[in-house]
Amino acid sequence: MKMNSWMLLLIFGLFFSKTALTAPQSYPPQVGTVHPDFVLPQIDSRQPVSLSQFRGKKVLLINFASW
Amino acid sequence: MPVWHKATQEWVKQGRLIVLGIAQEQHGDRCRLYAQWQKFDFPILHDPINLIGAKVVPLMLAIDEQGIVRAVGPKLEDFEDTFLNKDFLAGKAAPPPAAKPSAPDIDALQIKAKQSNSIEAWRSFGDGLILWHGSDRLDEAIGAYTHSLQIDPTDDLSQFRLGVCFLKRHESGSRQPGDFQKAADLWGQALETDPNQYIWRRRIQQYGPRLNKPYPFYDWMAQAQTEVKERGEEPVAIQFPLSGSEIAQPMRKFLADSEKASSPDPDGLLARDTAGLIKAEAAVVPSRVRSGKSIRVHIDFLPSESLEAHWNNEAEPLRIWVDLPEGWETKSLLLSAPQPEEIESIEMRHIDFGILTPEGLDPGPIQITAYALYYVCEGKNGTCQFLRKDIKIQIEIVK
């Protein structure tokens, strides 16, 4: 029984460690969930900007490209 | 985008909304020119490595005061009613904003990567280097992503981001042979793992065959530069010139006029550039192609710094001749690269062209040959010569 539990744990651990390495990023986040915070450089000034610095305001986040 | 910008301007002025853009493209300067042209007045962040993980653009998210996503792909017609006017706080006070962030501590990321030796930590170290130090620590970023790929060679995020680094280095003064091809190869590998990643697919299409593009890439740029100048502004400078693959016009289809051109050196009598005054490098996008599909070939020519080589622009421009086997098609077998007005120059020159492969090829590597002809001078006031360089183009045909 003890052996079985350890084996189960090992299988579980292997499964989740592999999942963590290979799982595709889930984006966009689902409606009703918190958008993960991020820090990216501003395109002209290169100053760091985070999403959380706008907390308390409504934000329209637009992923786009000029092409 | 311009529609949303116009519609939201008043709400932003009233303090009811923050608009935050994230540019999902390799070249920040091109996006800056676009923003200048469109008079975008909201902050735009640059995410060349797709850190956010968006798979398509444009992708809009309406996020409330607490950071909760309230709509993905909101509709403009009911945006005010369903989002702006809605009380998501239910009487509670709005949470205070977080302090303005600082750039990540690169040393700490490096220590974490070395200590944990995990793929995520090495990737984060690479992310920090490429996003916050750009060209200054590009080789280290390449090293970090290479490290994560040593742990898991199939990690598509590292593959894509390493490709971004290689292209960036290719476009810098510290370019290494093969950088462009490595970028194309890595993006191709990443896309094989996640074929639905449109941002990655677009990066390959940017340099790939024109026929594979659903719509133009940077055809807007010339119009933008003209109109910005007409407004009395100086357009944002573009650091790396557009390649032919990045615009759709003036050529959108293959023309079967190859037979009109003839080889300028059919018997191979011209002297070869054995000293390596000009270094030439070919890259193929996509690097692996099915028989019957098209590819884009990019060839760069760079005068040797150590030999103090430079272009002689008083003579005819750099030309290349492509020796295509029977059944293969291209717009023109003889192509030339534009040259500046000054008498001498040392810039890298670029020629790119599409090739349509024939049907029925067996899988495996195929080598196409081409040669370049150019006037090049060695050293200050040194001898100028008209030379030929033979070029090999490697194409991998897949099932």
Structural overview:
- The complex is a heterodimer of chains A (67) and B (399).
- With 67 residues, chain A is an alpha+beta fold.
- Chain A has 1 helix and 3 strands.
- By secondary structure, chain B is α+β, with helices and mostly antiparallel strands.
- Helix content of chain B is 30%, strand content 23%.
- Chain B has helices spanning 2-13, 28-38, 79-84, 106-116, 119-132, 138-151, 156-170, 179-193, 198-207, 220-230, and strands at residues 18-23, 44-46, 59-63, 69-72, 278-285, 288-290, 294-303, 309-312, 319-323, 329-330, 334-336, 344-345, 349-356, 364-378, 384-398.
- In chain B, helix 5 (119-132) runs parallel beside helix 7 (156-170).
- Chain B is globular.
- At the A-B interface, helix 1, strand 1, strand 2 and strand 3 of A face strand 1, helix 2, strand 2, strand 3 and strand 4 of B.
- Strand 3 of chain A pairs antiparallel with strand 3 (59-63) of chain B.
Mean pLDDT of chain A: 74
Q: Residue ranges of chain A: pLDDT <50 for 5 or more in a row?
A: 1-24
Name the structural class of chain B: alpha+beta
Runs of chain B in which pLDDT lies below 50 for 5 or more consecutive residues are: 251-258
Principal-axis shape of chain A equals: globular
Distance between the termini of chain A: 60 Å
Strand order of the largest sheet of chain A: 1-2
Largest sheet entry of chain A:
2 strands, antiparallel
Into which percentage range does the β-strand content of chain B fall? 15-25%
| Oligomeric state of shown chains | heterodimer
Radius of gyration of chain B: 24 Å
Average pLDDT of chain B, rounded to a whole number, is: 91
Number of strands of chain B: 15
Q: What string, H for helix and E for strand, traces the elements of chain B in order?
A: HEHEEEHHHHHHHHEEEEEEEEEEE
Total strand count of chain A, please? 3
Question: Ends of chain B: how far apart?
Answer: 39 Å
